[in-house]
Amino acid sequence: MTTAGFDESARDYDAVLVVSFGGPEGPDEVMPFLDRVLAGRPVPPPVKVRIAERYARFGGVSPINAHTREFIAALEARLAAKGPRLPVYWGNRNSAPLLDDTVRQMAGDGIRTAIAFVTSMFSSYSGCRQYREDLFRAAGAAAKAPRIDKLRVAYNHPGFVSAMADRVSKARERAPKGAALLFTAHSLPQSMASLADYEAQLREACGLVAQQVGDDHWRLAFQSNNARTGDPWLAPTVEEALASIAALGRSSVVVAPLGFVCDHMEVVMDLDVEARACAEGLGLGYFRAPTVGTHPAYVDMVRQLVVERISANPERPCLGQRGPNPDYCAPGCCLSGRPGEALPTVGGLVDEQLLPR
């Protein structure tokens, strides 16, 4: 039974599918990766070259795939220890293992139903609906594809909040007393952000983490708008926020990438290189908190989300005032803000995937 997007029925799944953004793992993979990332977007060639140069600085390797492998290994161990005992598959949007190939592999392995965990904690087109479109396309391209549901967005789940709070607390231990607390998340075009709960969820999560670490004077800034065109994007930037912190006479800052679950190029380049240089130029001591990565509370959160979907009338743990996100997305949620018809998806109240329950 589904009520207002919440699935109260016990479901039976054959596998867990981890869905991630992906990243290049060598110089030859950078341009094909960027071609996929920027497909259909009005990004001038010089901007694409500039983005590629960022990867070249790190030998053409993004850390995201290595971090995703570590997370999957931790999740597999947790499922083996605590259940449910389900195999874990992995598919990326933009690099190998590509989602289309993974779904074909699942079909060949006889997987009939799968529950997908998208490695994004917040609702937006690029962080949720686009992955649901990717899943629909991949299922449509595979013979005898499994039916794929998606775990709910879990930005206010106690596991995520406590994992991020622990990361922030450890960073604050390294910083001088009184260091400012700055959370960061990926910027979006305002036209896209206005069609989702992205900002509200981010601010709720920031407040929940800050409450656990005992700091009510936090800020939120937006990073990684490297492919921006003429459209306005979410602000302030990290550099603007750092300048404001310095102008208030603060001597140091703890920067916490709450909007990212693992390190990838936007974290290591934008925060560890560019933001650090900006802070040092402003005379600020700079201390970066790790992403949640393989924190045990975060890994077990994913297991708990799977348990929710295989249980009848489950509890849905959450913190704060906004309540749990639904299991199925409402029609028209998290649209891109671009012209044209919305593409079909999986994991919605009006589920376009035809394989029956």
Provide structural commentary.
The protein has 357 residues and is an alpha/beta fold. The protein contains twelve helices and ten strands. It has helices at residues 27-38, 45-56, 64-82, 99-108, 125-140, 158-174, 190-193, 198-213, 238-247, 265-268, 270-281, 296-309, and strands spanning 2-3, 6-7, 15-20, 88-92, 113-118, 147-150, 180-186, 218-223, 252-256, 285-288. The strands form three sheets. A four-stranded parallel sheet has the order 4-3-5-6, with helices on both faces. Strands 8-7-9-10 form a four-stranded parallel sheet, with helices on both faces. Strands 1-2 form a two-stranded antiparallel sheet. Strand 5 (113-118), helix 5 (125-140) and strand 6 (147-150) form a beta-alpha-beta unit. Helix 6 (158-174) runs antiparallel to helix 12 and helix 9 packs parallel to helix 11. The longest helix is centred in the first third of the chain and has 19 residues, at 64-82.
